[in-house]
Design a protein that fits this description.
The chain has helices at about 1-25, 35-55, 60-85, 95-110, 115-130, 145-165, 170-190, 195-215, 220-240, 245-270, 280-305, 315-330, 335-355, 360-370, 375-395, 400-420, 425-440, 450-470, 475-495, 500-525, 540-565, 675, and strands at about 570-575, 580, 585-590, 595, 605-615, 620-630, 630, 645-655, 655-660, 665, 680-685, 695-700. The protein is α+β, with helices and mostly antiparallel strands. Among the domains are: about 1-90 and about 500-565, no CATH class; about 140-240; about 565-700, no CATH class. The strands form 2 sheets. Strands 1, 2, 3, 10, 11 and 12 form a 6-stranded antiparallel sheet that branches. The chain starts with a helix and ends with a strand. The model has no long low-confidence stretch (mean pLDDT about 85).
Length: about 700
């Protein structure tokens, strides 16, 4: 019951946070600007106040007050996003996440609570990401970006080592830093002039990590093995695209042979050392099998295509089955060789059967392999392939659409799960595939009624599974269910079938309901869970950090409202489009006529101030006079009616400069983008005496 109570509290808190995010992002026009600011402030007070209150009331169950403190920092971030929405700034800007990360860092240093460590890590990486890519994901990747990614990867590696040495205590941050470092090192190893260096460096890091944690920590070894396997395969495809030739594919076959030979010796070594854990050997064999199989399959089809060998798909299928799959199941070859040949044969056979549409035959091959193979990990992999073949077969034979195909796959895996009691490997596969296909039903384009039905059923199923499996201590199942539960919360934000404001109200009601249930159960049963309170002996410092957040919000509201009241009004021509912000909802991306300056002597990025004057139509135009890095391009004295507007050069080419002024985002109520786009031709902007602009409204 204690586990049920803690989960109920967690769900209630998450629902309230999600409700606030959805509400602010909906940009509901019922409330004025200051009323929305008051709501944001109330949200922060609610979470921090509840944390202090419950720390005194619920003795022993300090996990809840700790969660509420973290939620308070999250609500501060939502408030920062709301201010950006209200004053049309910071749409997915690094400044938003930078400001948000400051109290998270201060709380991390002051409380040493793991939740703040994780939140700080995420916010800092968002800050870096949006600083590098302010306009579009992965746009304009340069060598400088590569070196920055490499540096951040090094910092994550050092953070991982610091935690491993015990200087910092946070298991989630340990794995987060490990995964982040590997992702960043992988990014640096492709498509740049130093890719050889970055590739060799990453291989060295992987080798050291695998050697260091081979016998000691299975979870770290599994993560490194997964990244290593993915990296080698992706690198193979990159090299294949660059050096495609028959010689390359022959070399790839030779590399697969060398890999299998080396793995045989290593497996024999592991068998002689009882200290090697079972899962370590299994993961190693799985990695070798995956890499070798992909190498061989790519080589076979690459050589056939280059040499223009006219081989029918049926012949290829028979060859793969008779000379690869069947022998590998009947012989006692070393595990890496056995499973690599088996998997290669299956992949070739499945590819051939798809091309000539005889996938029904693959059921016989997979059933045979599943029957003769006794290793759990192998049977799990073959079950996944069986399900993939089933989906292909149903799609080709019955010509099912996406909706009925997903329903059939979901029901099939539910039946397998229920029919395979205590056959855990089959249940694992059926559970994951069944849940994934069920989740997919909430994402596809359906009628509103069907969409709501599937979403509601998925929510109830995921929530029930989390409670049930948590109570039964079945870690794999309750963690998987919780992951799918959070995936639904995220997916609903970008779902367009029904409005954010309606989803916000629903989530708020659910949050209150779950919290009331948790309080009732807590009083009835008594939650005597012992946990550490971050507030002990640190209340004064925490209160100061909270006041710092309130002060920043107050200053931003005051400065923006002052500018709106006292700034000079100008009108600028524009061209709009409308995406959705990560935290702030729908907005229009405004491209002004002054966003690109022509015939300049600017050849670098930096701060710029331009001079605007009103034309006969009342539109403020660029005069050709500007100050870049505080140096004017021509002698200038301010004239009556002149308006100075500050900006930043983001790129320059052929005497042209691209400028951003901080007024490129105009937030709109959800779903109104198409109504506004194409109708507006100008923006009304307020400019302060110092040249800072704030976007007020759009006009036709």
């Amino acid at each position: 019951m204690k586990k049920v109570i803690s989960l109920t509290y967690l769900f209630g808190v998450v629902f309230l946070l999600a409700s606030a995010l959805y509400f602010f992002a909906s940009n509901w026009q019922v409330f004025s600007r200051l009323e929305k600011v008051a709501l944001a402030g109330s949200l922060i007070v609610l979470f921090y106040g509840a944390a202090f209150l419950l720390d005194r009331v619920l003795k022993g169950a300090y996990f809840l007050s700790n969660w509420l403190m973290v939620s308070g920092v999250i609500s501060f971030g939502l408030s920062v996003a709301l201010l950006g929405q209200l004053y049309n700034s910071h749409a997915d800007s690094y400044l938003l996440f930078l400001v948000w990360s400051i109290p998270a860092i201060l709380f991390s240093l002051h409380t040493r609570y793991s939740g703040f460590y994780v939140l700080t890590h995420i916010l800092i990486h968002f800050t870096i990401y949006f600083y590098l890519f302010p306009a579009s994901p992965f746009g304009h990747w340069t060598l400088a970006h590569t070196w920055i990614a490499f540096g951040v990867g090094i910092l994550n590696t050092l953070l991982f080592l610091i935690i491993k040495r015990g200087y910092l205590a946070s298991k989630p941050l340990l794995y987060l830093s490990l995964i982040s470092a590997n992702l960043l090192f992988m990014v640096t190893a492709f498509a740049n002039e130093f890719s050889v260096f970055f590739t060799l460096f990453y291989i060295f890091i992987l080798a050291v990590g695998v050697y260091r944690y081979f016998h000691k920590e299975t979870s770290i070894f599994i993560i490194l093995s997964m990244f290593g396997t993915g990296f080698i395969i992706i690198k193979m495809f990159e090299l294949m695209a660059r050096y495609v030739s028959s010689l390359f594919f022959v070399g790839l076959l030779f590399a697969a042979v060398l890999l299998l030979t080396g793995s045989v010796f290593l497996v024999n070594y592991l068998r002689k050392h009882s200290s090697s854990r079972h899962w370590t050997k299994t993961i190693f064999i799985a990695s070798v099998t995956t890499i070798a199989s992909v190498f061989i399959v790519a080589s076979v089809f690459g050589l056939l295509s280059l040499l223009m060998v006219d081989v029918s798909m049926v012949t290829l299928f028979v060859f793969a089955t008779v000379f690869l799959v069947i022998p590998s199941t009947l012989t006692s070859w070393p595990s890496p060789v056995k499973y690599s040949l088996m998997m290669t044969g299956i992949l070739i056979g499945m590819t051939a059967s798809v091309f000539d549409e005889f996938t029904f035959v693959m059921f016989l091959v997979l059933a045979y392999v599943f029957y003769v193979e006794k290793r759990s990990a192998a049977r799990f992999a073959f079950y996944l392939l069986f399900q993939l073949n089933t989906a292909i077969f149903l799609g080709q034979t019955l010509d099912l659409g996406t909706h009925p195909l997903l329903v059939v796959m979901m029901l099939l895996n539910v039946a397998v799960y229920l029919a395979t009691y205590k056959k855990y490997i089959l249940q694992y596969g059926a559970f994951l595939i069944g849940f994934f296909t069920f989740f997919s039903l909430t994402t596809i384009d359906l009628s509103l009624t069907l969409h709501i039905i599937y979403t509601a059923l998925f929510f109830l199923t995921a929530t029930g599974c989390v409670y049930l499996f948590k109570k039964q201590d079945r870690t794999f199942y309750w963690v998987s269910s919780l992951v799918f539960w959070f995936m639904l919360i995220v997916q609903l934000y970008y779902d367009l079938a029904w409005k954010l404001i309606h989803k916000s109200l629903l989530l708020a009601a659910l949050g209150i309901l779950f919290l009331l249930m948790a309080v009732y159960l807590d009083r009835k049963v008594g939650s005597d869970q012992q946990s550490y309170s971050m507030l002990v002996g640190k209340r004064l410092g925490i209160i100061l950090i909270i006041f710092l957040q309130a002060g920043w919000i107050g200053y931003q509201v005051y400065s923006n409202e002052t500018l709106l009241q006292n700034g000079e009004t100008i009108i600028l021509e524009l061209q709009p489009v409308d995406p959705r912000s990560l935290l702030q909802g729908d907005y229009m991306e405004l491209n002004y006529t002054i966003s690109q300056l022509e015939d300049t002597s600017i050849h670098d990025n930096g701060p710029v101030t331009i001079v605007l004057r009103k034309n006969a139509q009342g539109i403020h135009e660029y005069t050709g006079v500007y100050s870049f890095n505080e140096k004017w391009n021509a002698p200038y004295e301010k004239k009556p009616g002149d308006v100075l507007l500050n900006g930043k050069v983001t790129s320059s080419w052929d005497n042209n400069a691209q400028i951003t002024y901080g007024i490129e985002h105009f937030f709109i109520p959800e779903g109104t983008g198409l109504e506004v786009e194409g109708k507006v031709k100008a923006a009304v902007v307020k400019v302060s005496d110092k040249g800072n602009g704030i976007l007020v409204r759009l006009r036709d």
